[in-house]
Amino acid sequence: MTTQSETGLVESAAVAPTVGTPRHHIIIFFTLLVLLLLAPFVLYPVFVMKVLCFALFASALNLLLGFGGLLSFGHAAFFGSASYVAAHAAKVWGLNPEIAILLGVGAAALLGLGIGALAIRRQGIYFAMVTLAFAQMVYFIAVQAPFTGGEDGIQAVPRGRLFGLIDLTSDLTLYFVVLAIVVAALLGIYRIIHSPFGQVLKAIRDNEPRSISLGYKVDRYKLAVFVMSATLAGLAGATKAIVFQLSSLTDVYWSMSGEVVLMTLLGGMGTVFGPLVGAAAIVTMENYLAGFGAWVTVIQGVIFVASVMLFREGIVGVLAKWLKKPL
Amino acid sequence: MFELLGIPPQALFGQLLLGLINGSFYALLSLGLAVIFGLLNIINFSHGAQYMMGAFVAWMLMTYAGINYWWALLIVPIVVGATGVVIERVMIARLYHLDHLYGLLLTFGLALIIQGLFRNQYGVSGLPYSIPTELSGGTNLGFMFLPNYRAWVVVASAVVCFGTWFAIEKTKLGAYLRAATENPTLVGAFGINVPRMITLTYGFGVALAALAGVLAAPIYSVNPNMGADLIIVVFAVVVIGGMGSILGAILTGFGLGIVEGLTRVFYPEASSVVIFVIMALVLLVKPAGLFGRTA
Amino acid sequence: MKLPSLILATAASLLMAGTAMATDIKIGVLNDRSGVYADLSGEGSVIAARMAVEDFDAATKGIKVEIVSADHQNKPDIASTIAREWYDQDGVDMIADVPTSSAAFAVNDVTRDKNKIFMDSGAGSADLTGSKCSPNTVHWTYDTWALAHGTGSAMVQEGFKKWFFITADYAFGQALEKDTSAVVTAAGGEVVGAVRHPFPGTDFSSYLLQAQASGAQVIGLANAGGDTVNTIKQAAEFGITQAGQSLAGLLIFITDVHALGLETAQGLVLTEAFYWDLNDDTRAWSKRFAEQNGGNMPTMVHAGVYASVMHYLKAVEATGGKETAALMDWMKANPSQDPLFGEGTIRADGRHVHDMYLFKVKSPAESKGPWDYYNLMATIPAEDAFRPLAEGGCDLVK
């Protein structure tokens, strides 16, 4: 077995890195923000919130996969455990939603630190398998532990009042809270990618031995990005628990880990906007294809095969190539 | 009479034997996966779906053509293997220069399509397929009743596994194959049609999955979801054995069947997670797997 | 992409305002269309709902009914998303079917929040009319309590007193085991052991061997779908039944028996709320159903969807509108009457009460052809078939 392909992972999507914030990124961010501010008046707000949560989740994975070069096949563990902790905190302890979400995020960060410290000792496909193995253990705990409610999950979680003041039962109010959380997190990710830290990460991704010889403590960088990614995935999961008022085994199951990888790939990994597009595409597909019954999986399968065979760089990757600009 | 951890020894023997039987399915499936990964560097996520297809094609032969189990053992791997050859030619062959991840994604998509189509056609309740009359009944071993069919499964699987290992590791053909994965250009220069060899290898790996499907049809429910969850367990078996190691996949398959069998006695709730615990431990101690060739 | 339909809906409602006589009803059939329960609910439930609308002759009574359907994949989060969207966006008035208890709980919560109506047929948990009961929910066909009592007490009465359980390790399986254990011990039986397997599983031989070693007379199968089918298949293979132990299926549908084949399933004792071959009415209806369902006979879940939609439409006609509280009051105040369940009533906790039946699966020799699978052993009268109203712990019962 050869390991040369680890770096080949992103070669297709990678476009020359730029320093500073390119103007077209600012324009895209701004347009997106305006669209998202208008979205709940045209589209169903709960649906858009779902898209936002998954966009954040996929972006968190993309930080690790696209910029750190590490494929985690167990990100559902962070997403799901944060969702359980947040749901439990809001429902059983009756805490305010912002504190519930913070507790969920904290749990995901701790879990990320533990799993990450062990997993980064391995590379490539083995790294993916170790994360998968740990995620399966988290799933096992979710099935067995009494507080998670087994396959019923934690249901009827109250949305509560933000800071004890703002009532979140209205979908529209909640929408703007979720939008604020997700936009802030996405800006944070953007900042990380374009910081010196992000540059070192990309150097490690592209050529690990060279980075070591340059004197970088590669493992620390990897662990740091792993924990960041896990924390952000946790933020997505905890927010989702409050939006949908439930957290369930679906959130920790391995197919969730697979789904978020697919979102990232479909949108274009290693691009800034790819995960957002991928998440929107897949969530929309799941929602609007639900009426097709058993054909849904066939249609999904066809789309995945097509995206591997025809546009491997992902939707945004293809666009970026076409526009000759990193997106 | 002595007891071991509260379990009488007879019962324990029975459970060990059952573990071995289950292990023979793991061995057969992980062997196919290991052959494909070791020689093509493709993670064949549609392996579970191809195992399911094996069981379904056996059922179709029986139902529509009246072809019995024994012929199915021969015909099904060829038929399903042929679909594998087509898939390799049309799609997978275009992905070799890319990362493993793309192969995984492609085969994941294929698995969704195959499972979805069978689900639409045959529903999910499962279809009946009976044990061939020659193998019905069983033998009382004293400590347990061993159905003849299960004994046959262990023997058949062991023979196929050993045969495959021998062909790849000990014959000239196997040597070409292994050389072709290391340096296709050089092997091609010797006048060997490397792409065709690779294609047939994928077909063979798929045929092994289909064979496992035929073996499973009489004892497990024949339904479109039968391979869906199995794939990640088998995947774990291959990783523990060491990706690409043929012998590793076989031995780990049998071994983990036994470990899982014992877990079912002492802590049944954990029997589905024990393999992943072992996988995490093995990878942390021995990164290339128990039998991996490269560190 | 929702805009055109929004405009259309607005236009339609403006038009409707002119002709206030007609009532527009939208029924959402939400169930499993691709997973383990797709055959026992799935498209068949949509057919059943459509048949109810036709048989009720809604069109000539001035009620316009539209039926929509979706796949919840047995996941509570998907069920909750779809239910929310149906109520908020698509103007669905009532959701029917919803197998899988975890998904049913999710729909139960959303329906109460949005003050609509949920008529469950496919889910099993007795908590739907117990600790989690809701003024907006009717649970029509069966529940774990009814199945446990039907099968458990009948077996103990026949002298099968020592039980061993093979239980799917999830809340639903555990509830089934707990309920049945209570019945068995109350009737003078004894539970000698239990084993909990991960869900879903494929190989059950290890558990069967443990059950055999326990010396129990009955092996109670507290699992469902493919797990139950595999357990029974392997029990036949390992000679469990030949060696004298009996199997009791706690949640088995006729589609499972169909999948097993009579050779394997014969002698199994089970409880159901409906069988197509019960009487002339059920035979006539089932024949019509099978013609539309690829020749496959209805399950009790399909029958429950038909009967519950029928009762709901009667309420719409009688109250002349779709005001939730009025509909629920009417449905609970008036007995239901349909060709499949005969007469029944809906209790304060939302439980629909009707006769249940104890069946024994025929041997291949007894069966006259496909789908001729059951011998009726006993009819459990409606008043004994379900958990007494006072014991459920439902807030609505004072």
Alpha plus pi helix count of chain C:
14
Order of helices and strands of chain A: HHHHHHEEHHHHHHHH
Poorly predicted ranges of chain C: 13-20
Q: Indicate the proportion of strand residues of chain C.
A: 15-25%
Instruction: Indicate the radius of gyration of chain C in whole angstroms.
Output: 21 Å
| Assigned CATH superfamily of the largest domain in chain C | Response regulator
- β-sheet strand percentage of chain A: under 5%
By secondary-structure content and strand pairing, the structural class of chain A works out as mainly alpha
- The N- and C-terminal alpha carbons of chain C lie at a distance of 48 Å
Number of domains of chain C: 2
Percent helix of chain A, as a range, is over 70%
What is the CATH architecture term of the largest domain in chain C? 3-Layer(aba) Sandwich
Radius of gyration of chain A: 19 Å
Specify which chain pair forms the largest interface: A-B, 44 and 47 residues
Decide which structural class fits the backbone of chain C: alpha/beta
- DSSP helix fraction of chain C: 40-55%
Indicate the mean pLDDT of chain A: 87
Per CATH, which architecture of chain A?
A: Orthogonal Bundle
Distance between the termini of chain A: 33 Å
Short description:
By secondary structure, chain A is an all-alpha fold.
Explain what the structure shows.
The complex is a heterotrimer of chains A (327), B (295) and C (398). By secondary structure, chain A is mostly helical. Chain A has 14 helices and two strands, in the order ααααααββαααααααα. Chain A has a two-stranded antiparallel sheet with strand order 1-2. The model of chain A is unreliable at 1-18 (pLDDT under 50). Chain B is an all-alpha fold and 295 residues long. In chain B, 69% of the residues lie in helices and 2% in strands. Chain B is built from eleven helices and two strands; from the N terminus they run ααααββααααααα. Chain B has a two-stranded antiparallel ribbon with strand order 1-2. Chain C has two domains: 3-142 and 279-354, Rossmann fold (3-Layer(aba) Sandwich), CATH 3.40.50.2300; 146-272 and 356-385, 3-Layer(aba) Sandwich (Rossmann fold), CATH 3.40.50.2300. A five-stranded parallel β-sheet of chain C has the order 2-1-3-4-5, sandwiched between helices. In chain C, strands 7-6-8-9 form a four-stranded parallel β-sheet, with helices on both faces. The longest helix of chain C is centred in the C-terminal third of the chain and has 20 residues, at 300-319. The model of chain C is unreliable at 13-20 (pLDDT under 50). Chains A and B meet through helix 1, helix 6, helix 11 and helix 13 of A and helix 4, helix 9 and helix 11 of B.
